[in-house]
Amino acid sequence: MATERESETVHLNVEGCPDGKLQAIWGLGNQLFAFSGSTPNTRSKGRPAENRAASDICDVRWNTEMHTSITRKLVNETHNVFVMLQGQVASSTGSNLQSQMVMSSKQYRAILKACSMDLMHMAETCEDEGERESFEDQIQIFEMIQLIWGFCQILFIEVTPDGLLLNQLLDWIKWHFTDGKRLAVDILHDEIPAEHPAYWEAIFRLLLQGEVDSVRKLLSLNTSNQNEAFLSVDELLRKMPQWAHYHHALSAAEFDMKWRHWRDECQRRLEEGHYVAFPNLETLVMVLCGDENVFAEMKDMCGSWYHLLVSKMLYQNPTVRAPDLHHYAEACMEEFTLSGTRMGELDNILLAAIQFDIHQVIKDSSAFLSTGSWWFVSHFTDLLHHCGQLDTQNLAYGSNLREFLLLEYASSLMSHKSLWQVGIDYLDYCSVFGRTYITQFINHMSLDNEKKAHKLLHICEERNMQEEVQTICKVMGMKSLRRGKLGAALSWFLRSRDVTATSKLTERLIMEYSKTGQFEYTDILDNLGPAMFLSNRLTFLVKYREFHKLYESGETNKAASLLLSLLEARLAPRTFWITLFKDATPLLESKEVIFNSGQTYVLMHCLEELRHELDAKTDISQKLTDMEKDKLDLLQLCLTRNLSKAIKAEGTVKTS
Amino acid sequence: MFSASKTFPTAHEDLIHDVKYDFHGKRMASCSSDHSVKIWDCDEEDQWNCTAAWKAHSGSVWRVTWCHPEFGQVIATCSFDRTAAIWEELLGEQSREGKQSHWVRRTSLVDSRTSVTDVKFAPRHLGLLLATCSADCVVRIYEAHDVMNLSQWSLQHEIQCGLSCSCLAWNPSMFRFHLPMIAVGSDDPSSTAGGKVHIYEYSDANRKWRKVEIISMVTDSVHDLAFAPNFGKPYHTLAVASKDLSLFSIKPIGNLGKEPVSGGAISKFDMHRIAEFTEHDSKVWRVSWNVFGTVLCSSGDDGCVRLWKANYMGSWKCIEVMRGNGKKSEQQLEPKTTVVTASNNQNIRSPPPGIMNIKRNSGWPSFSTNADKGKLYY
Questions:
Q1: Where in the cell is it found (chain A) (predicted)?
Q2: Taking the domains of chain A in order of start, what are their residue ranges?
Q3: pLDDT the model gives residue B338
Q4: In which band, very low, low, confident or very high, does the pLDDT at A82 lie, cut at 50, 70 and 90?
Q5: Chain A residues inside the 8 Å CB shell of B342
Q6: Is the pLDDT of residue B63 over 90?
Q7: pLDDT at A57
Q8: Mean of all residue pLDDT scores within chain A
Q9: How high is the pLDDT of residue A34?
Q10: Which residues contact residue A91 at a Cβ distance below 8 angstroms, ignoring those fewer than 6 apart?
Q11: What per-residue confidence (pLDDT) applies to B247?
């Protein structure tokens, strides 16, 4: 088992008070505030002591590896693969799904590889020592992830029907151990290749990876290549049975037989002493024969136990099946531990994979490779989950392992200014906690501007999160209100369907009208539609505005009856009645009769009601000036005159 | 792994007692023994700027807390001067650029006869409620009747705790069958006074707060406590900072998820300690949860800040330790520790050497072509 990374003390540059203790408070995402704070012991002093330095606050962030420009690309591109894979899991089945799975796995690895290469480029061109070191750390982690992923893909994802996996393992080794190939290129470019000091090393390295053709090519460059021993080796190499060529035609057993024949031939020639004159050739043929001792000598050229394992299998047991691999792995590991190599976390993770202990692989990878981010374990576990390699039972926290890791990954993206959107897409695929996490996400997103608010609203509406929509609108409304943008505030409050806030705001608009006599935000008021019924106050305001429009366009009769109904329905705030009466005055004073007697009675009744309330010395009376009270008397006069006019007119009509 | 840290001076003239982020993590409030409160805003370049500072109380300001932004920009503070106060930011059109903002005191809550030790707004879905607790053993719940007018608060409930209160926490669960819940911690020094964490629940039927649980396992004085965000889990997680750091799981028994507690029945809980850590050696002063309730941060008398996280099996572990370079701790540090002291306040640190064991793994293939060339057997 891999030991978990022991936590290292991180030193913060917090200039503290002598009797303060470092304390910390969480912020959003991966952000902490550390400060030198008080303790009850220091509190009891109560008053400021002398000689206390000013305190600092330290803004600490971590796990921000995924926030750099390069890793951001990784996050965004793998996000696409992830979303596509989830779609395929939902729509396809069987072997079709399996091939999709393999493809997704390869895509993830390709993106990771590209990212790793970008990082290498950055590290090479980087001037700053510290920065380069952090790049190199990151590269190391990424390379390790690739190695583990490649291996696990062979074992768990791209499972061949016959259970043979040597070819894939060879490809894996070739991909990650390229020294042999590089050497070969150097040698081929040399003037006298056979005299190159690493000539034989290159041959052996390639041989250990099963690169037969390259080995033959190198051997043909030797000055004694026409010697019989060389020709014999060349023949053996040429005739070496390759499963890659046969696996369509032969069964594993048939292949095994063919291979044994070939090895017996190698054995025979070796024993007959064909190669005694050329010790290097002799070693080469011993490798072909799968000689235990010669592999022990070659282990340094393998560099790692898993390379040694694959090389050994190639020449000792090419039809090895995945479940048997671990029998051989331990011997290879021992080879290295005996010579003093310490087994690290990577070795343990690979060993656990060979032992088919997937949970251990994930556990160790989480502990060891997730210090920077949960990118690897979350995507990898998701794949394994869909491959059916994980038990789906719920863990104590309430859901399965896949969801646990996806939640971790998604929340690690939260504090970044653009990656949080990626996080939300991952949460969509977390069936148990996804939705509540999104809610929490949305609630904590800062609403810097309208654009961001609309983006968040869109996200909520897509997911039918009404409550969050209302909250966002309310917050935006409060924001606009504080900035004095009443129109914007009104439309936000309407959207949030917040009656109290809308009423309060409408009252402010009405007050403003009473002061200035000007309507503001007419475009909003004129286009409210049914939204105006959210609050009585708002209905009044809209209707009142309508009255003004009618009045301006000369439709005095309609205007008058609207005004009357506003008063009659008691929609207007009392304090505003005076204004309404004032508005009625020109209508009353006009030559034609606009208010008939019945309507005039209603107006008179309303006026009486207002007067009565004024006499009762309620709050309203304090809000009215004496001048306004005088106007009421004037109004009384107007009403009486209009009444007489109306009765006269009505009488005339009757008689005619 | 810590990738970046940035230090900025607060210019508080005395010890800082509390620092709080607002809901969105873009604003911060700090309060101090120098009677003042400061508001900090994070600008486009990720720099923190002080946009308001004022003398808020006539004594040390213990705690500061933010209200949900749907109620505006509002904070509450509590102080040694026996009051708690509500502050609202005024932002006219003229000061729109936000260089400086002006905060006005909306109200002073003067019911306590002793120092007010903690102040917390209720979770948003309960409305605009504020809880305070004080050394006179009382928890008070205030309510603003008109959310548009924060100058009127009425004292809705007074809970007599019988023990001097040091801290309180609202249960943030938004699950609709969970009744409003408050945990209160006491700093009463006598260990014979029984459990120091009391849990109260509000019963709609009786319109009363009732004590539903005493955590008898905690008998030492409690300095801080915090509920983890719940996310619809069937249990609540409460972190308690006392002599050591404890995590409690509080699971409502029986009717959870099926129906609300009926009538006057008192809810029953299944409570147990899920973790107990003594790493801070002596005392733990502070606990704080991250937004998702997955990582807990604790601060202790040993001058360290520790981060705790549960793996998928629910077992909690320390994942990170931080130490400051305050003058006092500097003397205690062994000489070998390297303290980063850059003079500029933007100070990006590379991870300390050896933070990853990978480097020590010699069985690992090398990746740099240049390095490999040097290793060949020429």
A1: Nucleus, Nuclear pore complex
A2: 9-66, 70-161+356-449, 172-320, 450-542, 554-656
A3: 30
A4: very high
A5: 13
A6: yes
A7: 82
A8: 84
A9: 84
A10: none
A11: 94
Domain boundaries B16-336, CATH class: mainly beta
A9–B317 CB contact, under 8 Å: no
Please count the residues of chain B. 378
Give the distance from residue A79's alpha carbon to the nearest chain B alpha carbon, in angstroms: 22
Yes or no, beta carbons of B71 and A36 under 8 Å apart: no
Asked if B63 contacts B78 with a C-beta cutoff of 8 angstroms, the reply is yes
Distance between CA A484 and CA A474 in Å, rounded?
15
- Which of 155-214 (B) contact A at CB < 8 A? 166, 187
Residue A215: what residue type? Answer: V
d(CA A533, CA A109): 57
- Record: contact B361-A447, CB cut-off 8 A: no
Among candidates B7, B15, B352 on the partner chain, residue whose Cβ is nearest the Cβ of A56: B7
**CATH 2.130.10.10 residue spans of chain B:** 16-336
CB within 8 A of A111, min separation 6: which ones? A74, A77, A78, A81
Nearest to A154 by CA among A175, A169, A173, A176: A169
- Which residues lie across from B107 on neighbouring strands? B86
Predicted confidence (pLDDT) per residue in B137-150, tens digit: 999 999 998 888 88
**For residue A501, what pLDDT band results from cuts at 50, 70 and 90?**
confident
In this structure, are residues B363 and A303 in contact, taking their beta carbons and an 8 Å threshold? yes
Residue pair A610/A635 in contact (Cβ under 8 Å)? The answer is: no
* Residue recorded with tokens 């060993």: A351
- Contact with chain B for residue A404, Cβ under 8 A: yes
Q: Which residue among A139, A347, A395 places its CB closest to the CB of B363?
A: A347
pLDDT > 50? residue A350: yes
| B378 pLDDT above the threshold of 60 | no
| pLDDT tens digits along A537-561 | 888 888 888 888 888 888 888 888 8
CA-based nearest distance A321→chain B, Å: 25
Mutation target to probe the A interface, by most A beta carbons within 10 A, among B66, B88, B292, B347 is: B292
pLDDT of A43: 60
Query: CA nearest A473 in B: which residue?
Result: B70
Question: Judged by CB atoms within 8 Å, which residues 333-372 of A form the interface with B?
Answer: 336, 341-347, 363, 366-368, 371-372
Q: Which amino acid is at B160?
A: Q
Give the whole-angstrom CA distance, residue A493 versus residue A479.
Answer: 11
Size of interface A-B (CB pairs under 8 A): 382
Best residue in B2, B34, B65, B116 for a mutation probing chain A (most A CBs within 10 Å)? B2
The ipTM is 0.79
